Amino acid sequence: MAYELYYWPGIQGRGEFVRLALEEAGADYVDVARGPKGIRAMMRMMDEGPHPSFAPPFLKDGARVIGQTAAILLYLGARHSLAPKDPDGGLWTHQIQLTLGDFITEAHDTHHPVGSSLYYEDQKAEALRRASDFRLNRIPKFLDWFNTLLARNPSGPRHLVGGSLSYVDLSLFQIVEGLSHAFPRAIQDALGAVPHVAALHHAVANRPRLKAYLASDRRIPFNEEGIFRHYPELDD
Asked: In principle, which of 141, 155, 176, 209 could form an S-S bond with 201, CB 3.0–4.6 Å?
């Protein structure tokens, strides 16, 4: 039975981190909200059942429904060899993913620092200040930490955890992709100081399944509705 992924159909957003894991695993899945009456089905899922998700993404596997990006990846990682099998390794991978989630939130808040219910134009002055700090301080700090994890990995710097690809490698790849869209000037400078992160990004982009997915129409283009938005004035 195919997985059912529920996420907004017009953006990559947090759902893309789940899509990358499903694509790399070669798993059968349906991107429900992109199909006929898919939004209606997604909203119905959020209104029914004893454990409704607060917001997409959520994944349905038979009778089981899992919400929250990190929890979905924890589940998929164990089922599709995208995380270490030992408990300590699995917990460490989950911890890294939660830190990646913090990074994602800070990237989003550069263009919506006051409130998600407001338009960007209603908080532009605050966004300029927030983006400046994000570019100068937060991007380098996060990327340096991930570069350090790669450098200290006993199995070598090709992966964040262990000696094979895990879902956190895919998530770090996606963040670099997103920042390359939103902050092309800042990320170009930052990547020069984190060679292991840059090498991981390149390696993931060239994995056969991921390369095919990235070139397909299943990969929604970045746009100014998702997490990673390119406003030139925020990258200045």
From this structure: 176
What ranges make up the beta strands (E) of the chain?
A: 3-6, 29-31, 58-61, 64-67
CATH number of 3-79: 3.40.30.10
> How confident is residue 48, by pLDDT bands cut at 50, 70 and 90?
confident
How many Å is the maximal CA-CA distance in the chain?
A: 49
Domain extents for the chain? 3-79, 87-235
Cβ atoms 100, 175 nearer than 8 A:
yes
Residue 20 backbone class (left: φ over 0; alpha: ψ -120 to 50; beta: rest): alpha
Cβ proximity of 209 and 26 under 8 Å: yes
Q: What is the mean pLDDT of the chain?
A: 97
As its CATH architecture, domain 87-235 has: Up-down Bundle (1.20)
SS3 29: strand
Task: Assess whether pLDDT exceeds 90 at residue 110.
Answer: yes
Instruction: Note if the bond before 57 is cis, omega within 30 degrees.
Output: yes
Burial of 75 (0-12, 13-18, 19+ CB in 10 A): middle
Question: In 109-194, which residue ranges form alpha helices assigned H by DSSP?
Answer: 124-133, 139-152, 167-182, 184-191
